[in-house]
Amino acid sequence: MVDKIHVKTTINGLPQEFLVDPFMSLLETLRDVLNLTGTKEGCNDGNCGACTVVLDGRIVDSCCVLGAEIEGKTVETIEGMAGPDGLHPLQQAFLEEAALQCGICTPGFLVSAKALLEREPEADEHRIRYWLAGNLCRCTGYDKIIKAVQKVQA
Amino acid sequence: MVSTQEYKVIGTRPIRHDGLDKVTGRAVYGADIKLPGMLYGDVLRSPHAHARIKSVDTSGAEAMDGVIAVMTSADMPEAGDKIVDLGEGEINLKYASNHIIASGKVNFKGHPVAAVAATSTNIAREAVRAIKVEYEVLPSAITVDEALADGAPIICEEMVGDDLGEEVKNTNMASHFRHEFGDLEKGFSEATTIVEHRYDLAMVHQGYIEPQNATAVWNEEGRIKVWVSTQGSFSTRTQIAGVLQIDESRINVVPLEIGGGFGGKIPIYLEPLAAILSKKSGGKPVRILMDRTDVFDATGPTPGGWVNVKMGVNDEGIITAAESDIRFDAGGFPGSPVGAAAMCVFSCYDIANTRIDGYDIIVNKPKTAAYRAPGSTHVAFATESVVDEICEKIGMDVVEFRLKNASKEGSRRADGPIFPLIGNVETLEASQASPHWQSELVRDGGNGKLRGRGIANGYWFNIGFKSSVNLSVNTDGTVMLVEGSTDIGGTRVSIAMQAAEVLGIPAEDVRPTVVDTDSVGYTDVTGGSRTCYATGYAAYNAAKSLITKLTTRAASIWDLSEDQIEFSEGKFASKSDPELSMTFKELASQLNDTGGPVNSTGAVDLENAGGSFATHIVDLEIDPETGKTDVVRYTTVQDVGTAIHPSYVEGQMQGGAVQGIGWALNEEYFMSDEGAMENASFLDYRMPTSLDLPEIETILVEVPNPVHPYGVRGVGETPIVPPVAAIANAIYDALGIRLRSAPMNPGRILVALKEKNG
Amino acid sequence: MHPFDYVAATSVDQVNSVLAEHGKRARPLVGGTDLLVQLRGGRFELDVVVDIKGVPEANVLDLNGSLKMGSAVSCATVYENEAISAAFPGLMDAAELIGGIQIQSRASMAGNLCNSTPSGDTIGPMIVHGGQVNIVSSSGSRTVAVEDFCTGPGRNVLEDGEWVLDITFPAPSSSFGAAYERFIPRNEMDIAVAGAASSLTLDGSGNISEAKVSLAAVGPTPVTVGAIGDLLEGKTPTAENFEAAGKIAYDAVSPISDMRGTIEQRRHLSGVLTRRTLAKAAERAKAG
Q: Which chain A positions have a beta carbon within 8 Å of B15's beta carbon?
């Protein structure tokens, strides 16, 4: 057996310290060690985006990252998206535009879309669809998700 | 056509009550649950599609540190041949039990053989690998034709098949049934044009993003509590009770948020395994999660198989006869949705002479389950393609032909029922008038790409069944709504809206909660497009009952008789004294001082439902050099009855259409000769991404369902029916090639183009 | 999954020593988008993974005419660099179409190369851009052309203890152009059914002085078709000549049939994509 690794990191702006098995993914770490279950597992092999988080400013599939890798880094998850002032505009737009049905892919879409609008606030429909192609949704046909993102741009 | 009835709440678009939890990550789904002392389970699955289990040696797993319990089929109660109804059809309990964990034989790759509970996920996974199973690998049958061929391996050896009422042994044909009406031979003899073709479809998966999961405690009192992701908490309870052979009342099923189902989360898979492992570990909670490969290999996709359709028309363009032969692969145990397919195959048309044969055939693939209008997409692919071919032969407009032959109120569906008021004609007319159909198709897509347009119809009958709702009034004038329908896509809000409409209060003032099976009356599955219809009806009844009780209370406050009080526009008022009037809220505030709380219940068991028709229009762009198809415009037109919450109705239409687009173009179980699904990952299963789609336009046609107080029809399933056929028709329009095998992927298009062009 | 240890290395020597100690039971980790998935799927077992993202030399991205790209540099970092994108358009094409944004944020081209699948999207572009792989170990270093790196599906020239530190590309001339295209049934998130990377250099009179084509997913390793270079050298960059090059590609490849495509489909696509990428490379070469 291998020993657990001690990790000090920043998650949603808060310092965190924990022990983790070195082979455990960041997804499992968030969910099972830190109880941040808003990040979801859909495929566990980097093909659905349900586990999308921001790692040092870039969106990644947390299933393809080890928990031990976030030592000294910053991670943002869905739980950090709304603040004391209320929901992020994207969260509000998803509600108003009915951009979710079952909701399991929603945290991943919100994290990806937020990163997109921070980098490319003027992204056109094709660019939004390209940027979100790493996030699968099986309920909505994407139409209302795209429109919710565009609503925030408007 | 929009219903003219004036509503205050119905037809508006309030924010769903459960939305906030879902956009913040707070909503608790099945895999999110963590209980004190919880153990982690894993399942050993067969690597073979068909094999006899000669021995299972679990000693290696049992010896591992951190392994608490190990189970095999020996830990399951002996299952007899008992037929039970689990909410969406009857099932033999013995097959249900053997499906949960293999006994003696494995019938498909991924079939569970043993299970383990351990102190961590990884220990459980390693322990499963330490179990040694000796298999005698048997020849497998993967397609319906292989399974029916002479000398085919027999998969369920003791099964007695039903061939038009005759018992058959030593067969993979679980059933063969027939619907006949009129005089088929006479009908075809009256035809001047006859078209007949066979259409093949690969097995496909619902593709919900959340894998199956179950957490269970089996305590010392013999009571079981399970936390699950399910479309039906009560049907889950019935299934668990059946295979574990304990009373339903000793089981409490807690439905957590569900990450998609589309029919695939009606059957149980992990629940009995988690419960037995819990019992064997002394009542500790045991959680088992599937991974994506498990989901593809071992849950319930929808069948592959083929549909033959023969149709004849006379010189006036009237269909005189139609015949169909439908053969579905059931998977490793009997029970494909071929019966439903037979109900839908000719349902869009009024045909005097018909015959339909259906076959349910066992193959060495995962046991199939429902998938959104199960079976109807298959048959629409065949019928709607044949209809287009007929139109071309007789030189008739494809919409005019469909309108001329359309089923309407009073038409007989080929399997027997007479249609009540339906919106087939209205849907076709709305399609004909739509901006999409009226627009000119630019055939040159640029860069050598060719465009084509297709149209197709679809139908799903929808179901009613049983639902329960409880209401209680808060003194602030809000109302708590407790229901048993699990909410996959926004039904909390659409059910709350129906109660709010009756009560004359805003949708936001009705607070809906989905509760466990101990806490509400029996409710059937969230499936069959029944939830907004039937549970909404129960909510309507509960709200009506609440108004009756509140009227009594108002009467006692005012010292009047009930019949002197009327309730309208959200106000209780005396019919004679204009001074005596109270809003719902004002009355609520007085309840505790005037006799105590007021609660009500509503329960329904609805025999009938309103069927729903849809017409889809699609423009495709195809690169003839690569066979690549892109959808460039898509319109869904559907008779939705009354749209309670139009956004979620549109969402159902868009989502169903896109699942159908994936089915048409790329999705399939790509099987090896040995019966393994080779593309059991989201990477290679190729569901549509956002970049593969255009906007999905929606046109809601509202022909109110006469048997629902607000005219609700089910809407969720019909949208997946037309897309495969519409795309096949559009490919023909673009390239002049008629593809009769789904998926119509780039490889198949290239081959067909080569055959055509030499 | 067999439990493995994790080492966050901060120096080349540290990576060398871990790999030297564990041999086949250790591998470097960059994006994890292949490695972690393969470990989870039980494809092979490791005792330790060495994260090289903290090694400064593996993070070099130095454009100075030629390009030196450290093995830990993510695809996104490459395509976000406008100067590199302009100078190395073939690399840019591939970096932008691997996976989705989430994968591009983590995956590196060196990782794609070391994974050595015939369908690796960045390998062909690195070949036609003339990439040279700097392989290091505790016993020294050696250089191998990207073209010679892969030896079979999932196999390559790396010996136990060796790893890739960086890949260097020569400065392209002003009349050089390159392009990569792959065919997938969707528009993102797929593995190539077939892919083609092409490069062209034009001489002063606009004739082709050098041409290179490398095809993906149509053989056990990336297939570099020398005969296309022989055909095109000295010729003009015309549709007819590129069509003829496509025919050579069709005959040169040796694909298999699997869930992603058939032999005939892949041969056909090799021809189409060769023609298309040569045309695109020529446009870029002309544009300078």
A: 95-96
